[in-house]
Amino acid sequence: MTVIIILIVLGILLFVIEFLLVPGVTVAGIGGLILTVFGVYKAFEDYGSTVGVWVLIGTVLLSVFVIAMSLRDRTWSRLMLKTNIKGTVDSDLTEEQVKTGDRGTALTRLAPMGKILVNDLVREAKSTEGYVDEHTDIEIVSVEGTRISVKPIKDK
User: Fold this and answer.
1) How many Cα atoms sit within 13 Å of 19 on the Cβ side?
2) What is the Cα–Cα distance from 20 to 70, expressed in whole angstroms?
3) What contacts 46, CB < 8 A, 6 or more positions away?
4) Assessment of whether the complete model's pTM goes beyond 0.85
5) In 3-state terms, the chain is what percent helix, strand and coil (to 5)?
6) Which tens digits make up the pLDDT trace of 23-73?
7) How far apart are CA 115 and CA 151, in angstroms?
8) Cα separation of 144 and 94, whole Å?
9) Which CATH superfamily is domain 103-152 in?
10) Is 62 exposed, middle or buried, given 0-12, 13-18 or 19+ CB atoms closer than 10 A?
């Protein structure tokens, strides 16, 4: 019976790892399923259907209890990082720095977002005309706050 209990407990532990630490279908989830099912199967095989049913019911109840306890806020508050991040979004763009009609160069491919160099400033911009390859000359179409829209300059 000790082997069955160990299998089921390890399976449930792997399920908790799957739910909280490694989301998705990974080795932990598959391993947890295999160990839990094998533990219940061994209980049916070694001790008969009555004990097997009780082990199955106990496994389901224990699984629900352990997952519910691990999802509680207080359980993980001891492990959480409690540092506040004091960052801001780039909000220093002014109309004097970048204006409609200014010209620059695409530093990265705009698909449709990317980096541009305009007036010796590197900014993120959005292309209004689809994809723009890097090192393409661009023109500012509009500036709304920190949102810059550009279009490629067509050679004539």
Assistant:
1) 16
2) 8
3) 4
4) no
5) 45, 20, 35
6) 777 888 888 889 999 999 999 999 999 999 999 999 999 988 887 887 776
7) 13
8) 10
9) Nucleic acid-binding proteins (2.40.50.140)
10) middle
